[in-house]
Design a protein that fits this description.
Elements (H helix, E strand, L loop, with lengths): L9 H12 L19 H8 L7 E3 L20 E6 L1 H5 L13 E5 L7 E3 L16 H4 E2 L2 E2 L12 E8 H5 L10 E2 L1 H11 L8 E5 L2 H8 L11 E2 L4 H6 L4 E4 L17 H10 L2 E4 L4 H10 L3 E5 L10 E3 L3 E3 L1
Parallel strand pairs: 7-9, 8-10, 9-11, 11-12
Antiparallel strand pairs: 1-15, 2-3, 4-12, 4-14, 5-6, 7-13, 13-15
Helix pairs in contact: 1-9
């Protein structure tokens, strides 16, 4: 498919796509849930009915110092520190009565250093946040006062569909870096799998990049070239009325982006205009292997973010149940 925008003019392309896909005002001026409004109780009942075997899959990468982060914009890997240990207990240094001892620990990390959701306060378009609010009134040094991730802590449980683009379009189950997945390809994958994607669903798109990073080393996984969604999928993301989308890559959309000089233009439409939640760095490999084996690509997903008050994104341990 020919790219339908001027690659030298991402600003005009973003403006045009934002106008086509805007959900501003759709759920009222005070809305904080965005596309999660599509995911209702009926969709959750539908999702629960998909559980047949009781098999569970964690879709989270590990949170440790050996993660993919390289320090871009001060993003580092988690630092885990023990406050109390078994050594302390054995040495009798803890001061507890009748022989009881214990261990405690602390972790320091950016909230988007591993498997996570982007919240609605994460990205702005010309200083406008979700629903047209002024960015400076939404997110300050004290955090997101309006759409903090805690406002949707109960929202991410429903029907999910794995779209295994790596297997369907790639070689050896992996797409090459720079591969832009189109809306037509997403639709064809869903049809081939017999798992349509529609209102209230959570779409999980596997590219295979994480599998390659595991095999070959992290390299530039965090922020470098990657397969991902084409900018042109914005209309599909809007028109399908999905609740959220997540991928196994650092940034969901294809990198390098499809313009001569741009940075995450699909984010610029999806988050502040569509009100769509984006999941990044999800581990979809074991789930994808199981889906390929049993042919069931739709399942129950629960993926609640840690409800850190005022956060614009949060870690998550997504659980798929089949």
């Amino acid at each position: 498919m020919t790219f339908p925008f001027d690659r030298a003019d991402p600003e005009s392309a973003v403006a045009e796509m934002a106008a086509r896909c805007s959900n501003w005002g759709r759920w009222g001026e005070h809305d904080v849930r965005g596309t999660l409004n599509h995911l209702d109780e009926a969709k959750r009942r539908e999702a629960a009915a998909l559980v047949r075997r009781g098999a569970v899959f964690s879709l989270a990468q590990r949170f440790d110092v050996d993660g993919p982060q390289r320090g871009w914009r001060r993003r580092t890997n988690p630092v885990h520190t023990m406050l109390d240990t078994g050594t302390d207990a054995a040495a009798g240094k803890q001061g507890f009565p009748h022989g009881i001892g214990g261990a405690d620990d602390v972790v320091s990390m950016p909230l988007q250093c591993s498997t996570q959701w982007d919240g609605l306060g994460h990205i702005f378009d010309h200083a406008k946040a979700w629903n047209g609010r002024p960015a400076e009134e939404v997110v300050t040094a004290a955090g997101d006062h309006v759409t903090g991730i805690e406002t949707v802590a109960d929202g991410f449980t429903g029907r999910a569909v794995l779209l295994d683009a790596g297997r369907a379009l790639g070689t050896g189950g992996e797409l090459p870096d720079g591969y832009a997945i189109t809306a037509q390809e997403l639709t064809e994958i869903a049809e081939r799998q017999g798992s349509p994607v529609g209102r209230g669903d959570i779409a999980l798109v596997r590219t295979g990049q994480l599998a390659r990073a595991r095999r070959d080393g992290w390299g530039t996984y965090a922020g470098g070239p990657a397969p991902g969604l084409s900018f042109t999928t914005a209309e599909w993301l809007h028109g399908t009325e999905i609740a959220a989308v997540a991928t196994d890559t650092w940034g969901v959309e294809v990198r390098p982006n499809e313009f001569d000089d741009a940075f995450q233009p699909l984010h610029q439409v999806a988050i502040p205009h569509i009100g769509l939640f984006l999941g990044e760095m999800w581990d979809l490999d074991a789930l994808a292997a199981d889906c390929a084996e049993d042919g069931q690509h739709a399942f129950l997903l629960t993926a609640a973010p840690i409800p850190i008050t005022g956060a614009v994104g949060a870690p998550v341990n997504p659980i798929a149940v089949k």
